[in-house]
Specification:
This protein is α/β, with parallel strands linked by helices and 283 residues long. It folds into 2 domains: 104 residues, 60s Ribosomal Protein L30, Chain: A (2-Layer Sandwich), CATH 3.30.1330; 167 residues, 3-Layer(aba) Sandwich (Alpha/beta knot), CATH 3.40.1280.10. The chain contains 10 helices and 13 strands. The strands form 2 sheets. Strands 6-9-8-7-12-10-13-11 form an 8-stranded parallel beta sheet, with helices on both faces. Helix 4 links the parallel strand 3 and strand 4. It is elongated.
Length: 283
Amino acid sequence: MLKHEYETITSRRNALLVETHKLSDRKHRNRTGLFRFDGVKLTAEALSRGVALTAVLLRESDAACVLERVFSMCDKEFSSETRVCFVADPIFDSLSEESAPEGIICVASMQGDVHRVWTDAPDSTERVMLLESVRDPSNLGAIIRSAAAFGVDRLVLSADCADIYNAKTVRASMGTLFSQQIDRVDDLTVAIAALRADGRRVYAAALDERAARLDELDARAGDCAVIGNEGHGLSAETLAACTSSVYIPMTDRAESLNAAVAAAVLMWEFCRADRGDSKGDRK
């Protein structure tokens, strides 16, 4: 099953295990350019999408079964440069970040070619959505997953959004993080200005005096939306930078939508417009 050479680790003080544990800390991830994630499906997705795995840790007792599950989901093997280690069960379980560990932990290099700092305006054909102060990593991961599902080409994040390499973000993204274009910017208003200078309309997801109902908005190809923190919404500066505002109509039985749910609704509507669908096509 495993053509790769492997090591067996029986000590909690092993240098690789110590380093893997440290990757739970954002500062250490940024210093090393590495991140970690747990789980069979995420491992298979990472292999399929060409993510550079520096190490794979397997729970010793069920390593063969776990590898069989991983390789049944993809047609790729581990690189010859990947360290593959069998780890004693109690040590592995204490290292895992899962409540029910599946028996595999990966250490990978951050993807500089996919996730970068904003350098220039997106191509005019790209579908773009922007996020401000989305600090919950699970929400961010779910938004990344929705972006992939609805065909958003690029997500633009303010600097204070959750870390995309947080374990909860990676898990909630269900592997879509590994190929989604994501930019992080120090000043979201600069990105909005660049989009508007390119002729795009940028809508703030907010209920203010300018806001149009989403189901009545005449969305067109190239339009973008900005989704904010579900507790505090968008900043005054971001609201002022946008072309206008839009809101999702709903009943009075709920005060608001979860940020990830609101983002998914907006992505669907704006990407529908980008596909050229008209309101008359809806059933």
